[in-house]
Amino acid sequence: MNAFLQNFLDWPLLVDSLPSLIGTGLVNTLILSVISTALGIVAGMALALCAVSHTRWLTWPVRVFVDVFRGLPAALVILVVGQGLAPVGLSLFGPNPYPLAIVALALVSSAYIAEIFRSGIQSVGRGQMSACQALGMTYWSGMRHVIVPQGVRRILPALANQFISIVKDSSLVYFLGLLTSQRDLFTIGQNAAVNTANLSPLVAAGAVYLLITVPLTHAINHLDRWTNRFLHPAARRQKASRAARNVRNEEALQSQTAAVAERRP
Q1: Does domain 2-263 have CATH number 1.10.3720.10?
Q2: How far apart are CA 48 and CA 143, in angstroms?
Q3: 131-182 tens-digit pLDDT
Q4: How far is residue 157's CA from residue 120's CA, in Å, rounded to a whole number?
Q5: DSSP state string for 212-230
Q6: Residues sharing a CB contact under 8 Å with residue 224, sequence separation 6 or more, in sequence order
Q7: CB-based burial of residue 216 (10 Å sphere; 0-12 exposed, 13-18 middle, 19+ buried)?
Q8: How many beta carbons lie within 10 A of that of residue 123, not counting itself?
Q9: Which of 181, 220, 202 is nearest to 27 (CA)?
């Protein structure tokens, strides 16, 4: 037990590693996660709209893209993009691999977000699009003004969950050998653990990850409850309408039964 505490919970090492973890690692992790998720949302929406269209030359490439980048490990995508596109990165960004790490994470997130958007769009009833077309709206106009806003409201918790996944996947960018000032939480904790021959800095890095993910998880739950709050009144009205209709049907049946009984001799 003492060996475990000394190797994982060495408080002086935990405290000493916190300044670099928060000042550098936390900032870089948030930068990588927020930018890649924002790019993934833009690309994912475009991919989802192509996926639900009725044009094959749009749907099939999107299906291949989504299947590939959802099926590959994130570490492999980061390595392929960071090293395979290094010549392109040198011409665009210089020797800095940081932008390529963002591109790799954005590709991974866009594949998942595309499926999230697609499921949200397809959850909207088909009658909505028929009503849009009956009002003279085009397909894309109906998607923009009616279908997509309803679908997006339904998948906000799933988008937040995807952001949490990207926060954790950002720990894999250490494969690209970023500069000291560009290192994320995991890389800083790993380097400190190697230098001190103690895993307490990695435990400290995990604690900082929890500071990001746990509040986000509770925020997602609150968002889900807040979203469902607006859906429940409609559901209650539908339930009340069905109950009232059943009562009317029952009363009509009783009246018919009584009328038949009165006619009998």
Answers
A1: yes
A2: 11
A3: 877 878 877 788 887 888 887 877 888 888 889 889 988 888 887 877 777 7
A4: 11
A5: HHHHHHHHHHHHHHHHHHH
A6: 156, 157
A7: middle
A8: 12
A9: 181
